[in-house]
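Run log // design_07
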């Protein structure tokens, strides 16, 4: 199936800065270009509907940044594996990345942060009374 862009869509993408990207390539990925804006709209709409003021989040520490960096490398290697025809490796790497991301997003348990802490040291335990 051949994908094309309407002149209007092509012009709007050019305005966004995609004017140096081949039109056929843009036509293939245009739905994915909208994803980040869709997620932003979803979260913004949800925050608005729930009347939720959003304050600044605390700065992420080195263990979390380490985990995100390793995740970015995993993502690049996964993309390379798929693009080079190593589909099984791509699925395995992508599955591991997805599993680790789901684990931390649902339980706060970050395996890569634990690896970082085991190398560079653990923080002191918080007093149980402070956490209440």
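design_07 sequence
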């Amino acid at each position: 199936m051949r994908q094309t862009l309407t002149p209007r869509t092509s012009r709007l993408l050019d305005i966004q800065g995609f004017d140096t990207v081949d039109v056929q390539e843009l036509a293939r990925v245009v739905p994915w270009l909208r994803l980040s804006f869709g997620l932003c709209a979803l979260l913004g709409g949800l925050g608005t509907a729930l009347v939720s003021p959003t304050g600044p989040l605390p700065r992420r520490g080195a263990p979390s940044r380490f985990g995100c960096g390793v995740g970015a490398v995993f993502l690049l290697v996964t993309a390379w594996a798929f693009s080079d025809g190593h589909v099984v490796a791509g699925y395995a790497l992508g599955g591991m990345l997805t599993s680790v991301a789901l684990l931390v997003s649902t339980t706060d348990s970050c395996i890569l942060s634990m690896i970082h802490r085991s190398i560079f040291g653990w923080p002191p335990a918080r007093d149980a009374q402070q956490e209440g």
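Residues 1-55 form one domain.
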